[in-house]
């Protein structure tokens, strides 16, 4: 019966839940979903992370390659992040070249990592103007049920945290490169940027903030994906993106920042626990 | 920052705008904010392909063209920002099964390109006569190394800044419609920047009102 | 959007008007619309308007590896784009016949006529050459795109200056515009494409408008097409570099002669104007007058507005204020510390950790039954 009701009156169905201060999946407005994090389970890549945020599942794998640095920045390496949204993760995506949305998500994830300055690209340089690391971070979404950016950032950061770089020796005379994969040193990661998504639902005169929205909630709130993404890193904001959906009032905005801060602490603890657990 | 007088004067870049710059579009506007210039054309509601029609609302298509070079992922991101902003502002449900195309052409970029593009889009939409929920104004600001906030930074200020924040406000309650940022900044800087931009958006709204009243008085 | 076709009465009317010696906008057969060239702040960017037809051109350059068959020559690449901005019937990111046609004609006119000294673009033979890329964006399509686009290409190429380079051993240093004065591109000659519309096989109309173009290429009522568009590419020395006919075959060779004579005069005019505007632009740049596309916005217009002094008095935040508020927030955080305990962080399987909401943290309300009652 509820399914039929949902089909016939999609807006009223959702409104009924909201007016009773609960969300269709039984969460409170500001409650987020359970998160599961697993690191280094994919042995084919140098480092990997699997994140499950409710139903949203994202895998990140990092591949290493050596390259010559750009002529303009001879002392930096490269960090290439790419988010792939396969048709299997949602009925909205079609096979073929990356959709506009996938490009936008890639761009936001790259921006968050770059803005938080958690990776210093200069650390990736091995020999000035001659040799540098390229980190290919491929993020694949298996199941998209909202809060995609959160999961992508979390998967990426936890993989970066576990990444170790092999030792490289370079002979400037013969230009000979030797890679010793047995000796490895971890990559320096400063801080832990964590993104938190919100959807903003217009409910009569006021708007309601929904933390960690599911794909269904994101659709109901309009816009493409989450409406508000707040990213904290070491007590600083490193990205506040608000797109589409309803407008955001001052109180809501303050509340969102606060909720995001709390969730960031929790996720930080999660990533640390996970990495401790792995290294044991 | 230091202890200064309670109020201080802030300046926005000079704005210059002309409507109906293009004869073939339903609405067009060219806007310069300081040295940054953009040109926007709006066509719609139009007849579109069956597969992209929506029975509930008009299908909005936004295209961002850079001046030269190949299209990039960053352009898609800009398109997405403008598209989502317009989608909220346009009363799309009045034009079901039709399409609206917004094309933005970058002419000069000396900082604040995206906020200039957003303001220009709003002016072009006003010019095209499409029904809108509200008008919107974009204001950008930079947080410099000392934590000071500079409204509408110049290009040099923008490159040396620690963070760049952009906000788009709607005209009715001055609520935040769209926001995006670069760099990292403290929470207090964010709050302060938001409030200043909110206040400064008034100037942009006045500009809209003046330009519309200038010609609508004649008609 | 689908293309809007002209109605029969529009076609017949226009053909009749033309055959009687008039044109819709009151011009003579041999009269062109007003040509304006505006340069942007960068070298090699300009907007050319021919009446209401507007085209933006931008030249950019980068260092690339040369083609193997021509190891000592630079590369010239021309790219034409027609976005929905030009007219609603064009679709975004899709090549139309018109784009291909314009691209080909411009390539013929500028690449194949060898007007640019490509050898001067070489830096290191077989390794590094300059690649010039001309991006043509059609802003408004009111007819005679080819003439407008070709003037834009010519003006932007002639205006463009590339950064200077110095070679020291293996290294090639590219100087910024501030370090060293940039170098202008060498043009051997200045070719321009001039378009004519041919009506009923003997009337030659220069600078056709959008409606004239569509009438002369479409078939007339009696069936059979008697018109077409003739494009003549010519340089300032009256040398022909391109001839292209679209539409019906011409059986009257006099009309081509007439077109060539007209084109020669028009070419001279255009090239003189291009040269003059570039010289003017150069002198004003030397006087450090800031040039910008914002200059093309007219201020006297009824539909335009310019505001110089946009200032606002805002409250200046005090250091004390901010620190106070930060302190408060700190306290807030302290107060709310116990709250997140709604969730547990647990290491579960190897390499895995979880955040789990504690039981009872949320209360599930069976709402479906409630709404059924409604």
Number of DSSP-assigned strands of chain A:
12
What is the end-to-end distance of chain C?
A: 46 Å
As a percent range, the share of helical residues of chain C equals 25-40%
Q: Structural class given helices, strands, pairing of chain A? A: alpha+beta
Low-confidence stretches of chain A: none
| Helix-strand topology string of chain A | HHEEEEHEEHEEEEHEEH
The mean pLDDT of chain A is 88
The rounded Rg of chain A comes to 21 Å
How many domain modules of chain A? 1
Integer count of domains of chain C: 1
Structure at a glance:
Chain A is α+β, with helices and mostly antiparallel strands and 280 residues long. Chain A is built from 6 helices and 12 strands.
How would you describe this protein?
The complex is a heterotrimer of chains A (280), B (219) and C (374). In chain A, strands 1, 2, 3, 4, 5 and 6 form a six-stranded mixed β-sheet that branches. A four-stranded antiparallel β-sheet of chain A has the order 10-9-11-12, with helices on both faces. Chain A has a two-stranded antiparallel sheet with strand order 7-8. Chain A contains six helices and twelve strands. In chain A, helix 1 (2-8) packs across helix 2 (10-19) and helix 3 (100-116) packs across helix 4 (148-162). Chain A has 280 residues and is an alpha+beta fold. Chain A has one domain (11-279): GHMP Kinase, N-terminal domain (Ribosomal Protein S5, domain 2, 2-Layer Sandwich), CATH 3.30.230. Chain B is 32% helix and 33% strand. Chain B contains four helices and ten strands, in the order E-E-E-E-E-H-E-H-E-E-H-E-E-H. In chain C, a hairpin with a 5-residue loop joins strand 13 and strand 14. With 374 residues, chain C is of the alpha+beta class. Residues 318-340 and 360-374 of chain C have low confidence and may be disordered. The longest helix of chain C is centred in the C-terminal third of the chain and has 33 residues, at 254-286. Chains in contact: A-B, A-C, B-C. The interface between B and C is large, with 66 and 61 residues.
